[in-house]
Every structure is written in structure tokens, then in C-alpha cells.
Specification:
The chain has 11 helices and 10 strands. By secondary structure, it is an alpha+beta fold. The protein has 2 domains: 2-90; 111-348, Bira Bifunctional Protein, Domain 2 (BirA Bifunctional Protein, domain 2, 2-Layer Sandwich), CATH 3.30.930.10.
Length: 349
């Protein structure tokens, strides 16, 4: 048996000198230490040996098996390292070459406008609130001084889901009503609430059945007036359209404010001289606003004899269209990076 083992060692060493591939490793494992390998064959007839012979044969077979296993594993590691080094050399990257340009996305235009507005109002002590887009009629209309059957509902004709009580909100003013009720008429409120709104409208270049609305509300015991609203709107307009932007109020009517105003900014295209963008008026209408109606304060838990406030609301799409010169509202909902990337570069300038 010792002679057989010595012959196996010589054959193994000779075979290991000639192997070069991983397949050669697989073959040599099968030849020597596999199920039918020559080393395994040494122990198949051990049952016919005496106890003393079995002991010696077992010791010798284990030694040759360990010897062969170590030799083969070392050779396998050597071959794998050689293959890896060859692969690394072939796939080496020349770091002096120009890098491959990887296209990157551009910030969503509406998100940029919303973030600008949020940054401004948070700097003035306002909180940002969110609310459900599937809303109850009482929050979307009734608590805002628009009872059932009121003709003002026609202007905000929306999508009803369950009868006449559950709908897709037509304005984020519903969030204002919820926040006032949560405060139970005991605490002042400074808030804005951006979010998606839905109205039954035709989709064209300037209208969409869903759009992003940003509304704001301030309620306090102090002597809040239209001058406070005007100062707030001035700060907003300058943030969005530049420091040279001029603002004005025009009388208007909304069910949830009294008095109500339309808020305009000077046309930044013609500097107030008149052009097609402003329809030769020199002004651009941005939002509606006004002092919170006493009925709204009362229905939402605030004593109108003690508390006063103002509210405003505008569409993020309209502001973005004016700011970036976009003539089709559907651009905001297009995932074409060639379009949104243009406005990103324009903003950087």
C-alpha cells in the first residue's frame, strides 16, 4: 500500500505541473479524491484486512488524501489568482480618459415653486400642512361658507365619489378648515397648505382637471388687516418674480373672505408697459385673497369678535408658467427631460 501511495504522489505532482485551467482542476479532483478516484479506491478493500492492517491502511489513506487535497487546493488558488490578474489587466480603466457623461434628471418645476414658497413662509413662522385629497363636502364647501345649493359651487364643480358627501377636493381650503377645528378656537394659526386639487374642467393648454394649489391662512387676536395681507403678498411676489416686482389689490368676491381681493403683480416681461403676456394691461393676476369671513371663523370654532385673519390661494402651475415662460400647462405632467431640463438651466441663470 505504501508503494501505491508513493506512486499516487508522483502522479499527482506530475499532473499538477501540467494543469492550467479550472476545468483541469475539476478533472484532477475527480481522478484522485473523487468518489471513484484512485485515493478513494485504496480504502474499498479495507474490510478484508486484519485490524492491525486496517489501522495502518486508514492512517496512510488519510495522509495521502490530505496531501492531495492541499496540493490541489493550492493549485486551484494559484490558477484562480492568475485568471483574476489577467482579467484585471485586460479590463483596466485608464483614469486619464474623459469620463462617460451620465445624464441626470432635473428638479420638477412645480416642486421647485412649492419649495420656494414653503421656504419663504417657514422663515416667517408659518407651518406647512397637508390633508386628504378625498374629502368630505362639509370641509370642502360647507365650513367655507358655501352651503348646499349655493351657485358658487358651480365654479368649483368637482368629482363626487359617494353621493353628494364624498368628493375629490376642489381646493386646499379644506385643510384650513380642518386645522382651525383642531385648534378649537384657542390658538393663533399661521399655515400654508400646498397640494393637488380636482375640478371638472377641460384639459387644454391653460387648464387641467387637476392642478396644484397653494393656500395660506393667518388667524390671530391682533388687529389683522388687509395691509398685513398686502405685505405678505409683496414678500411672496418678490420671492417668486424678483425684487423689482410691484403688487396691487383689486376688489373681488369670494364666499369665504370679506372683503375679497384679486392680487396682481407687475408684468415682468414688459415692466408694466403692456405686452401680449399681460394683455397690454401691465399687470398679471396671480391669486385670490381676502380677510377670513366671520361665518367661516364661527363655523370653524373661532369667535369672529375676538379673532381675525386673512387667507390667500393661487395655482402653482400658473406661477410657474409665468415665471418660466411656459405656454402649455401639460408640460408639467410630461416626463420628457428635454423639456424640464430647459427650465432647470434657465433657473440657474
Amino acid at each position: 500500500m505504501k508503494e501505491k501511495i508513493e506512486n499516487i504522489k508522483l502522479d499527482l505532482d506530475k499532473d499538477l505541473e501540467n494543469i492550467k485551467t479550472t476545468q483541469d482542476i475539476v478533472d484532477i479532483k475527480a481522478k484522485y479524491i473523487g468518489k471513484n478516484g484512485c485515493i478513494t479506491e485504496l480504502t474499498k478493500n479495507m474490510k478484508d484486512l486484519s485490524p492491525e492492517e486496517r489501522k495502518e491502511a486508514g492512517m496512510l489513506s488519510n495522509e495521502i488524501k490530505n496531501y492531495a487535497t492541499d496540493k490541489i487546493n493550492n493549485k486551484e488558488e494559484e490558477i484562480n489568482n492568475a485568471i483574476l490578474n489577467e482579467k484585471l489587466n485586460k479590463e483596466a480603466i485608464d483614469i486619464t480618459l474623459p469620463a462617460t457623461e451620465i445624464p441626470t434628471g432635473a428638479p420638477n418645476i412645480l416642486e421647485k415653486v412649492i419649495e420656494e414658497v414653503e421656504d419663504l413662509f417657514m422663515s416667517m413662522g408659518y407651518d406647512v400642512y397637508d390633508g386628504p385629497e378625498v374629502e368630505e363636502d362639509k370641509y370642502n364647501f360647507e365650513l367655507l361658507n358655501i352651503p348646499k345649493g349655493h351657485p358658487a359651487r358651480d365654479a368649483q364643480d368637482t368629482f363626487y365619489i359617494e353621493g353628494n358627501e364624498i368628493l375629490l377636493r376642489s381646493q386646499t381650503s379644506a385643510v384650513q378648515a380642518r386645522v382651525m377645528l383642531e385648534h378649537e378656537g384657542k390658538e393663533p394659526i399661521r399655515m400654508i397648505c400646498p397640494g393637488r386639487t380636482y375640478r371638472r374642467d377641460e384639459d387644454d393648454a391653460t387648464h387641467s382637471h387637476n392642478f396644484t394649489q397653494i393656500e395660506g391662512l393667518l388667524v390671530d387676536k391682533k388687529d389683522i388687516s388687509l395691509s398685513d395681507l398686502k405685505g405678505t403678498f409683496d414678500a411672496l411676489a418678490k420671492k417668486l418674480f424678483g425684487e423689482d416686482c410691484v403688487t396691487r389689490f383689486r376688489p373681488s368676491y369670494y364666499q369665504f373672505t370679506e372683503p375679497s381681493v384679486e392680487t396682481d403683480v407687475s408684468c415682468f416681461a414688459c415692466k408694466g408697459k403692456g405686452c401680449p403676456l399681460c394683455k397690454n394691461t401691465g399687470w398679471l393676476t396671480i391669486s385670490g385673497a381676502g380677510m377670513v369671513h366671520p361665518n367661516v371663523l364661527k363655523m370653524c370654532g373661532y369667535d369672529p369678535n375676538v379673532w381675525k385673519g386673512f387667507a390667500f390661494g393661487f395655482g402653482a402651475e400658473r406661477c410657474a408658467m409665468l415665471k418660466y415662460g411656459i405656454n402649455d400647462i401639460r408640460t408639467f405632467y410630461n416626463a420628457d427631460l428635454r423639456e424640464v431640463g430647459i427650465f432647470d438651466r434657465k433657473e440657474d441663470k
